[in-house]
Amino acid sequence: MASSLRHGLTKARSHILSRTRWFSSQSDALVEAKIPEVGIISGIPEQHLRRRVVIYSPARTASQQGSGKVGKWKINFLSTQKWENPLMGWTSTGDPYANVGDAGLSFESEEAAKEFAEKHGWEYTVRKRHTPLLRVKSYADNFKWKGLPKSEE
Amino acid sequence: MEFLLMNHPLDCPICDQGGECDLQDQSMAFGSDRGRFTEVKRSVVDKNLGPLVKTVMTRCIQCTRCVRFATEVAGVQDLGMLGRGSGEEIGTYVEKLMTSELSGNVIDICPVGALTSKPFAFKARNWELKGTETIDVTDAVGSNIRIDSRGPEVMRIVPRLNEDINEEWISDKTRFCYDGLKRQRLNDPMIRGADGRFKPVIWRDALAVVAEMAHKVKPEEIVGVAGQLSDAESMMALKDLLNKMGSNNVWCEGNGSNRDADLRSGYIMNSSIAGLEKADAFLLVGTQPRVEAAIVNARIRKTVLAKQAQGWGPDTLLEIAERRHPFSSVLLNAKNPAIIVGAGLFERKDKDAIFSALETIAKYANAVRLDWNGFNVLLLKAAQAAALDLGLVPESENSIESAKFVYLMGADDVNLEKVPADALWFIKGIMATGVDDWKIIRALSEVAGVKLPYDTLGAIRSRIKTVAPNILNIDEREPATFSFSIKPESTKKMDSAPFGTAVDNFYMTDSITRASKIMAQCSALLLKK
User: Is the predicted pLDDT of residue B245 greater than 70, yes or no?
Assistant: First the structure.
């Protein structure tokens, strides 16, 4: 048992090392590729290792709720494969990450989300967060004297 | 809290606002678990505000947000407060529908369930919905929206804040067009047989037939028209495919025979939508922002200090250009004059003359400076700007008249009467589910023997990067580098025919909105004259 575990570990290590070598051979590249450590070690299938994800901060709801939950960062896996299962009418998906982003991943900052995505080897784009522009307004301004009335032309 | 809840019904389990209700949140946080109110709760008769907004007026807490929105943002004095004390109620006084293009926003504004969405009523609960943040395509504004879906079905569309574009509003067309997505879809490729009926076929056969047809005709007889809802990737693929086949007759609907894609400043909103607030005089030419881009109209309205002159034809425009019109002095005195040109003018033959007159005006009014660019074109269709950025301009103006093979990529509004009767057709609807348009074109290119060099979305985007890198900068506004000052002067004469209306029916402008039942109801009820 122990030997098989050790064997598994060395296998994973050599895998990482070979990856490192592969990347270091391209060290003159403009963009330095990060090794997706977590992705490789946790045994995630190959086709899900390098996924395109979007890092974004969910907008405030359109209705008049408070803003307590605004400002978190999420990762969206851009999964679109969804269908209604004919057996029960429930929604099926062929993507194991389909519900992970919304339900499971929430970050305090953009950097934390980026770091997480890099660790997993996901190719990410970051969407800008939109914040409201607060203009100073006063009810009293409605009754402020705005100078002499202008003559109509 | 107790006073607010005194006359508020205990409707939460049957209320559409439940779960996203400000009053519910407040009473969960601060409210008492029992009331001391023993009188009879007041009841208010529900109002009929039209096919979009459902009212349950007993739930109203008289915050008057809807009234203020209607008068201050939407600019219609439809809603008001009647009565006093416990008899106070929100209403239209006489039975009247809300006629604003922005009326759907009162649903979001209402902190309780008094105003809710009629098409969404009792369809889903908001905690069952999964939001996807995206951009609206029903007009050229590109409002930021969130599409809420339950399972595979789109349930509703709500706005997302973007101060540069739509602030926090969206137009009714954007909000309620979604039921058009569920109707009249093309799920399979179909070929019209000898009996004139469409028969579903598999993709391989369909592509083989199309490739064979495309090879039968001469390269210059091939024409491609991208639909108004096309994405940049597909338009790039379409142009590449046609160019590889030897034709350069490809354009996007709405742009017509417009071949001025050289100067970006000639077809974008140069002062930006948010920048319109800085303008102090507006000259609107051949455009009706209220129906063409309701959100931009709200922006213009916000800048109410401005004076507007809306001429009725090229004669007025010529008068202003020659400084004979009283409005030219207004433009001269304005600090930041804004000229907004409707994209409906692209279809006119005397477009160059109109644009040169406008440029004269912009020059003497000093509308284009380093710190202010007030020369704006208000586009109509979502795909227009990207199409021009990618260079989708027809090589010859009359290509459609000599066409033998027409590739319509989701283009529904092309005038096909001019196409010769012996033309071979390839019409592809926008609504092929599950298959991206660029993938179809990529597959077709391989069958036709002119293989396009990209297989993945990343690859096609890097191809776009070589043509128009600005398209890939999502969420960033890319201002035009050159203004019209380097454009050669046009010597053409203006036609005296009045400017037509570019949009007849606000609620139905593309294939999605035309398939929508809600939009049909709106146009039947609200556009009744």
Answer: yes
Q: CA–CA separation, B364 vs B331, rounded Å? A: 9
**pLDDT of B26-57, one tens digit each?**
999 998 888 888 888 888 999 999 899 999 99
Token digits for B106?
């009162």
In chain A, which residues have their Cβ closer than 8 Å to the Cβ of B146? 59, 62
- Return the amino acid letter for B134: T
Residue A64 to residue B146, Cβ atoms within 8 A: no
Burial of B408 (0-12, 13-18, 19+ CB in 10 A): buried
Do the bridges between strand B80-82 and strand B153-159 make them parallel or antiparallel, or are there none, so unpaired? Answer: unpaired
Domain locations in chain A? 2-60+69-129
d(CA A131, CA B206): 48
Q: Which helix (H) or strand (E) holds B212?
A: helix B203-216
CB contact under 8 A, B108 and A62: yes
Give dist(CA B292, CA B290) in Å, integer.
6
**Alpha carbon distance A77, A98 (integer Å):** 7
Instruction: Return residues 296-355 of B near A (CB < 8 Å).
Output: 326
pLDDT above 80: residue A13: no
DSSP symbol at B485: G
DSSP string, chain A: -HHHHHHHHHHHHHHHHHHHHHHHTTTTSSSPPPP-HHHHHTT--GGGTS-EEEEE-PPPPSSS--STTTT-BEEE-----EEE-TTTS-EEES-TTTTHHHHH--BSSHHHHHHHHHHHT-EEEEPPPP---PPP--GGGGGS--SSPPPP-
In chain B, the percentage of residues whose pLDDT exceeds 90 is 26
Which of B121, B184, B256, B254 is CA-nearest to residue B513? B184
Phi, psi of B136 (to 5 degrees): -80, 145
- β-pairing, B405-409 vs B222-226, is parallel
Residues paired with residue B153 on neighbouring β-strands, in sequence order: B150
Please give the model's pTM, rounded to 2 decimal places. Answer: 0.85
Buried/exposed code over B500-517 (b: 16+ C-beta within 10 A; e: otherwise): eebbeebbbbbbbbbbbe
- Cα B255 vs. chain centroid, distance in angstroms? 15
Please give the torsion angle defined by the CA atoms of residues B334, B335, B336 and B337, in that order, rounded to the nearest 10 degrees. Answer: 20
In chain B, the largest separation of any two C-alpha atoms, in whole Å, equals 85
Nearest to A91 among B20, B151, B457 (CB): B151
Taking the C-alpha atoms of residue B2 and residue B18, their distance in angstroms, rounded to an integer, is 19
Angstrom CA distances, B360 to B317, B490, B497, stand at 11, 11, 20
Q: What is the rounded distance in angstroms from the CA atom of residue B389 to the CA atom of residue B467?
A: 8
B324: pLDDT confidence band, cut at 50, 70 and 90? Answer: confident
* Predicted pLDDT at B158: 95
**Residue A65 to residue B162, Cβ atoms within 8 A:** no
- The whole-number pLDDT of residue A141 equals 86
Helix (H) or strand (E) holding B307: strand B307-309
A130 touches chain B (CB under 8 A): yes
Q: What is the dihedral of CA B138, B141, B145, B150, to 10 degrees?
A: 10
Residue B304 in tokens: 């109410």
Beta bridge partners of B135: B144
